[in-house]
Amino acid sequence: MTPLAEFITALHGVASGEGEVITDPVRLRTYECDGLTYHRATPGVVVLAESATQIAAIVKLCNRYGVPFVARGSGTGLSGGALPRTDGVLIVTSKMRRVLEIDLPNRRAVVEPGVTNLAITEAVREQGYYYAPDPSSQQICSIGGNVAENSGGAHCLKYGFTVNHVEACEIVTPDGDIVVLDRMDPGYDLLGAFVGSEGTLGVATKVTVRLSRTPEAVTTVLAAFASIEQGGQAVSAIIGAGIVPAAIEMMDALSIEAAEAAVACAYPEGAGAVLIVELDGPAEAVERQFAQLTEICAQAFELRVAADPAERAAIWKGRKSAFAAVGRISPAYIVQDGVVPRTSLPSVLASIDRLSAEYGIKVANVFHAGDGNLHPLVLFDDAEPGAGERAETVSGKILDLCIENGGSITGEHGVGVDKSRYMPRMFSDDDLDTMQLVRCAFDPRNLSNPGKVFPTPRLCGEVPGVRKGVHPLVESGKAEQF
Amino acid sequence: MDPKLIKDCVHCGFCLPTCPTYVLWGEEMDSPRGRIHLMKQHTDGTPVTPEMAGHFDACLGCMACVTACPSGVKYDRLIEQTRAEVERVHVRDPQERAVRGLVFSLFPYPRRLRLLRPGIGLAERMAPFLERVHPSLGAMAALAPRVTRRQRLPRRVRARGPRRAVVGMLTGCVQGEFFPQVNAATARVLALEGCEVVIPPGQGCCGALSVHSGHEDQARRFARRTIRTFERAGVTTVVVNAAGCGSSMKEYGELLAGQPEWAARARAIRTVDLAEWLAELGPAATRHPLPLTIAYHDACHLAHAQGIRAQPRALLSAIPGLSVREVPDSAICCGSAGTYNIFQPEAARDLGDRKAKSVASTGAEVLVSANPGCTMQIASAMGRAGGSIRVAHTAEVLDASLRGVPL
Amino acid sequence: MAEEALEKSGVTLREAGPLDAVGDVLPSYVALPESVEEISALLRACAEADLAAVPVGGGTKLDWGAPPERCDVLIDTCCMNQIIEHAAGDLVVRAQAGVTLEALADRLATQGQELVYDGPFRADATVGGLLAAGTAGPRSFRYGTPRDLLIGITVVLADGTIAKSGGKVVKNVAGYDLGKLFTGSFGTLGVIAEATFRLHPLAAERAWVQTRLTPAQVQDAAVRLAAAQAEPTAVELDWPDPSGPVTLAALVEGAAATRRAQTLLDEVTSSMPGWWGEAGEGESLAEVRCMPDRVGGVLAALEGTGLALRGSPVSGRFFLRGDGAGFVPVVAGLREAGARVSVLASPYLMDRWGEVSALPLMRRVKERFDPGRRMSPGRFVGGI
Ligand SMILES: Cc1cc2nc3c(=O)[nH]c(=O)nc-3n(C[C@H](O)[C@H](O)[C@H](O)COP(=O)(O)OP(=O)(O)OC[C@H]3O[C@@H](n4cnc5c(N)ncnc54)[C@H](O)[C@@H]3O)c2cc1C
Ligand code: SF4
Ligand code: SF4
């Protein structure tokens, strides 16, 4: 028997409930990819996990049989982070979706990893609280996935990302131990390292998040500009004026067209770009900032202010559905997630334009302008020979542009399998090796979501501390340790 | 199954949280995204396995996923095509086949259905036996509502006051048999609002149940008959008060696409939901106060399949003294979905229980929806939980207000 | 041999004096590297000769943490004092580890910006020291602790490897976040050489309000302030004498600050209370952490002890300080009451860190980063 087959037999001892272990090939295939569909692999076996102890038992079995495991939440990741292993087990948390505790005096909620991001907010909204990080996929992405990806969202400009809102995590380590990582504990900030580690340091089984108080006032403004340059200037001016809005989002004409087709968001006609600016906080402060904002956006040919929550939702609807909506104007597309310093936005957007013209590939731009996080949607027709390759080239060149400008290849979607090959463009071997020391500490056997994040895995060596007494210059860190 | 339609799905997962079966089980294969993936597996050459068929069967056809999808995936078309394909190529196990056979020979035919009505007694007497043979059959008997009195509708109801329109009215098979009072209320409301109502006799099933279960041929036959009936009655607008019927009549054009002549005849008739029609028409009659707190439930085939959410709420809210409460998680199906509680009794019960809890949390006195199947399902779930609630169709509430009688 | 290896690294060295002691351990040399590469060369030399090293910035918190098991070289980052880049339009600054917070603040203020930190030693502490000790100030309640403001870091490991993570954009999830790992690591994983932070615009208007309460009133008042939609940036208490009343103060920043502040507490003052954000004086010093709804319990446990408490009841983070051996049982008592206590400095023998559930993992991290145990050995939790 293969290790996987033995593992599956043993698995029935720890996961016996109805429908928990999936081995039927047709069912297994429905788990072959996440939100990034061009990386696919049918998992060896899928477990719909029910509890931390069960996951710990599964991971212990993985260690016994040398079987790799991959955690999966809702499968909306856009970097192939939850791409399964054909020789491994996919541990799915979609049944672990209880909100365990809501503790308003301490502004916290404790939830299972499969709880969706939005469900947390819905559980506390009536009491005047919310969970701040708001990825566009918030109605479905799981908090476990958010933790793994350190997900952001439109409102992260002011409020920060998942890592800034997670207070503690219970995890199953790659050895199969249940450990609590708590911000309040003294010691290394392992929680900070775990958040954003894309499932390579273990499985989050319980997450304690911080809740934020609903702001007294929220003003959402939709400003339509004739061109993307004018929009970009407005962004710089807003930041320059010392305003920190809750969100500044920008969409170009092509992505407006897509959103319009999908949800009929009725953005001003003829806009070359729209900015969505949301101000929130104490009423007086918001009023003052709004006055400033109106002056700054003088170039806008239309300024629409949401008068009530319904109108605000209408403004956001176009933005939040923009990704998926691109399906309406193009048969296929690649979403990139590069980041550039905000001040480089205009020049980078101009370069993207040039790339687009040079390769005959349309690029729709919809992005978190406030923090320079671009989401270029590289559009192509997969029926057209060569189009896919050209789109791939354009999309790689966009990432190069980001790196050249001092930015990053990913702002919120993670590296996964998709961008691991770009990591060496951003980091040196030493940087990557040092990061992998963390990995070796957590997962010396390389069983937790192997093959993600890093282009080449580091062999950890079974006995840490082996370098003691060995001449350190010989092992200068570049050589992989065996 | 049309691979083009499948390709529209970008695998974003936005539809998952509104899918009742995903909400229940949290499994990819029982989510819209997973089902579309299964369809793709099939068009790529994987034969329909019993597992695959099971996941398609478990779909309620509630179309919540269509509303949720930003990519415009036509899941409604896809699942219809899939169901037809499953019926064509998949051999079910004998017992399942027998049950399905029985249901499809009963439901679309008013006279046969009548046999099931409590009061006639057959159902009650047979229930324990049916339950033993197959849980689905027990469910069917348990669901059949009591009817006190049959109400015969006239062929033509005159408009009160100046005539503003002439419309046809669909009586529907289930509606007509089990909830005749709803049809009566509908006719009165239309008349009070200035419509002359033409109610052709001898209407049968509109074909909705057949479409939703993959029996396309049967569905087409019913569709043609319905079109013919209303053509003869000389109306071009047909008002429908049952959400499921309305949504499938609106799709006759596509159903009959293979027969262009019929498709054209289908398109010549405009189907409107009662609430949609009344909202469009605007109020003429006086609304009398109804001091009530109601919870409005979105029937899937109204809210998702026809996109009608605002109109019924507006009509109800306009009644003086009446307060409308929103049901939490309103987008999620109650589990009744046509024949669903017959074929998937457990899932249907779980969904009913969930919905019952949400409805109970509103503290409303009356539960209103455009689909008696839903209200019946929810009310019985509330009963199981030891509570109770009065139920009514939107038409009945309007009727009470327009006539100034208590509900 | 040690001296030879160090000399060869080319880094400026001087003999250590009594003022260079780390706790009670006196190093042999003080090294004054001027660049990341020099730190790397120095640490390679240390590795070659198996010398233990302790990095130091402003020296403000050198008595924090346990004394090292051994210390041959004190790495003084005072010459690493360049502000490499202040990209005002991007609200980002990149600085070498030895830049003092005061120098940084002055520079940033010219563009109307700041690195939000108003905790202890906010003038003399260096960027590297701030991060290594992971101290937080009052305004971390709204802006987060230094760890939340750090967006990129360059570190040098015990074997001389120079590694960086993050970058100079505020949003970045490429690779593991070494910055978080090194923040609060007390120099036990390597030397922090450079750091990049996100900045905030300096608030146009500020107002403090305060009031005096009995200890029993504090928790409820704090919970109310934390939820206030007037959005205080910080809420602090000062309790110099635990037989007396507690001063509770809140800071409000931004538009209409004064008016908003008035809705919170009664006594409006335009200037910062003198004790704001300082750890205070005393023989022993500990950081106490607890949930906001345990603040009442912490205060009750301290009543009559003669120790002083200062810090944030809304973040649940305080400094406890005082003289005498009575400190030891109080720490134990607080832990029993559900608080986490880290004893930062004390002449008395006691469990400095309390129980840490993830300690085995932390040991493994240490073993990977510093298998030779040369970086500040023994200074941190579990003798790491
Ligand atoms: C239309 C669309 C819009 C999006 N918008 C945004 C956006 O605005 N901002 C943003 O940041 N992201 C966005 N995303 C990306 C995605 O939604 C996020 O990355 C999300 O956090 C993934 O959550 P998930 O539950 O789907 O995780 P999955 O895709 O299932 O998994 C993602 C990663 O997390 C790991 N993982 C999952 N659960 C656990 C666990 N319990 N413990 C450890 N590791 C785990 C997996 O192994 C994998 O590496 C978007 C995606 C789509 C499709
Ligand atoms: S129709 Fe309803 S049950 Fe079927 S997949 Fe869509 S949402 Fe789920
Ligand atoms: S929402 Fe639409 S595109 Fe997204 S997974 Fe569901 S069906 Fe596919």
Automatic annotation (TrEMBL), chain A:
Query: What keywords appear on the UniProt entry?
Result: FAD, Flavoprotein, Oxidoreductase
Q: Name one GO molecular function term.
A: (S)-2-hydroxy-acid oxidase activity
| Cofactor(s) listed | FAD
Kind of enzyme, top EC level?
oxidoreductase
Q: Which one Pfam family would you cite for this protein?
A: FAD-oxidase_C
Q: Which residues form the FAD-binding PCMH-type domain?
A: 39-214
Q: Does the keyword Flavoprotein apply?
A: yes
EC number(s) per entry: 1.1.3.15
Can you name this protein?
A: Glycolate oxidase
Species source reads Nonomuraea endophytica
From TrEMBL, chain B:
Against PROSITE patterns, the record matches this protein to: 4FE4S_FER_1, 4FE4S_FER_2
Q: Which organism is it from?
A: Nonomuraea endophytica
User: Which Pfam families does the UniProt record give?
Assistant: CCG, Fer4_8
> What function does this protein fulfil?
Component of a complex that catalyzes the oxidation of glycolate to glyoxylate.
Protein name (record): Glycolate oxidase iron-sulfur subunit
What keywords would UniProt list here? 4Fe-4S, Electron transport, Iron, Iron-sulfur, Metal-binding, Repeat, Transport
What cofactor(s) does the depicted protein rely on? [4Fe-4S] cluster
* PANTHER family per the UniProt record, alphabetical: GLYCOLATE OXIDASE IRON-SULFUR SUBUNIT (PTHR32479:SF17)
InterPro entries assigned to the protein according to its UniProt record, in alphabetical order? 4Fe4S_Fe-S-bd (IPR017896), 4Fe4S_Fe_S_CS (IPR017900), Cys_rich_dom (IPR004017), Glc_ox_4Fe-4S (IPR012257), Helical_ferredxn (IPR009051)
What residue stretches are annotated with the 4Fe-4S ferredoxin-type domain? 1-29, 50-81
Entry's cofactor comment: Binds 2 [4Fe-4S] clusters.
Enzyme Commission identifier(s): 1.1.99.14
Catalytic activity, reaction form: (R)-lactate + A = pyruvate + AH2; glycolate + A = glyoxylate + AH2
Recall the GO molecular function terms of this protein's record.
4 iron, 4 sulfur cluster binding; glycolate dehydrogenase activity; metal ion binding
TrEMBL record, chain C:
Query: Which molecular function GO terms apply here?
Result: catalytic activity; FAD binding
UniProt keyword Protease present = no
What are the UniProt keywords, alphabetically?
FAD, Flavoprotein
Q: Does the keyword Lipid metabolism apply?
A: no
> What residue stretches are annotated with the FAD-binding PCMH-type domain?
23-202
Give one Pfam family, short name only.
Answer: FAD_binding_4
The record's annotation in InterPro entries points to: FAD-bd_PCMH, FAD-bd_PCMH-like_sf, FAD-bd_PCMH_sub2, FAD-linked_Oxase-like_C, Oxid_FAD_bind_N
What PROSITE patterns is this protein classified in?
FAD_PCMH
PANTHER family according to UniProt:
D-LACTATE DEHYDROGENASE, GLYCOLATE OXIDASE SUBUNIT GLCE
What name appears for this protein in its UniProt entry? Glycolate oxidase FAD binding subunit
Q: Which organism is it from?
A: Nonomuraea endophytica
The organism's taxonomy opens as: Bacteria, Bacillati, Actinomycetota, Actinomycetes, Streptosporangiales
